[in-house]
Amino acid sequence: MSTLTSAPAERLPHPLVVRTVALDLAGAPSSDATDGTLPEADPTDLLDLLPAPGAETADGAAPLAWVRRGDGLVGWGEVLRFEVGGPGRFADAERAWHELLAHAVVRDEVQVPGTGPVAFGSFAFDERSAAGGVVVVPRVVVGRRGGRAWLTTMTVGAALGPVPDLDELAGVRVPPASPGAVTYTDGAVTADGWRDVVAAGIAAVRDGEVDKVVLARDVEARTEHPLDARWALQRLAHGYPSCWTFSVDGMLGATPELLVRSEKGLVTSRVLAGTIRRTGDDAADLARAAILAHSSKDLEEHEYAVRSVAHALEPFCSSTNVPDVPFVLHLPNVLHLASDVTGVLGGEAHAHPSSLALAAALHPTAAVCGTPTQAAATLIRRIEGMDRARYAGPVGWFGADGDGEWGIALRSAQTSPDDPHRVRLFAGCGIVAASDPAAELAESEAKLVPMRTAISSD
Fold first, then answer.
1. Is 257 one of the annotated active-site residues of the chain?
2. Is residue 2 part of a domain?
3. How many domains does the chain have?
4. Would 34 be classed as within a structural domain?
5. 60 forms bridges with which residues in the sheet?
6. Domain limits at 194?
7. Mind telling me which Pfam families this protein's record contains (predicted)?
8. Which of 254, 209, 170, 253 minimizes the C-alpha distance to 383?
9. Domain CATH number, residue 153
10. CA 252 – CA 407 distance, rounded (Å)
């Protein structure tokens, strides 16, 4: 069942009016390089545009962001939001989006992915979670891709307005304030208790209940001063430029895992499974990368994850490409086994599904749930001891044509709409028969580092 916090699209007094214009964004990569390459943009250029909490231009809504290596989208304000829940949350969200677009007035002067009507979304991991899902239609979107930048405004009106002005829409730019000192307490399960949870997961694997299960834990943080999401987002974008820095409805993070990108019939999914902590010493980390690449335990975990993604994409694709062996993805805090699965959508016999429909078909992957999926999900509900809410659920954006990008909400945290000092951090680990509870706890601590660093004041 879906609920709308604003009037349903068909009851709006006027249609959605969308205007996209080219933008000369300071700091955008130049296309004038003599060697034909584009210098990498500062990943925080787009994030710098986000208004401060409480600013009139923000409409009281949380900032919206999907940024990687300087490209991506940021948005603010809120024209409309669709709140959904239950097993039909993805289909309900897409239906509401299409209903809104049916009578939209659109003028797109740029015509690249991410221009025209755009909505951001975040969905719960478990269909039974009260967190449900949300699709937010922002009032303002600024995007950048390959040296081109643009500005999109979305309003409800009878006709197109004047050419939008970024300075006016962004308002006075106020730098984010430090959250001050941060204190941490146990989440739903203590650290010692989580070792017991992992032990129960290992026992279930050895008993043949599942081949693999992914177990997560949360940690509660309290900041001295109200957390400005922009503070965390800028630190994440600087520290993890190869990840997708995101923010939707208070769910924010920097995910290394792309659930699905759909663009003009081509589909990509980046699968991560198998992790080892970095030491900070380059030579030692190269040796650890070699260990990870040959670890039977991690390769087994990775194979389950890749297989689940390829199997989920197969009905929608005329062809797929699955790498024979993974590569090692180097992040500042950990090393991951990674594989990029690609495909070509459909052909004449298949209608092209939207990126959100593909995300729904892929979710939950073995990388965040386990194998077999349903058995792992049942086990998670029985032993994990917490509601993941939107952690490990799809997060991202899509446009009017259905194309878009959806990540898995990992390396993430949920801010509280009721208490700006409260932040809930998450981390999870893949459990197989060879797992060790103490080692998995240490891995979860390593995966908490990005968000701990993002909300720290030093």
1. yes
2. no
3. 1
4. no
5. none
6. 16-24+42-455
7. Chorismate_bind
8. 209
9. 3.60.120.10
10. 12
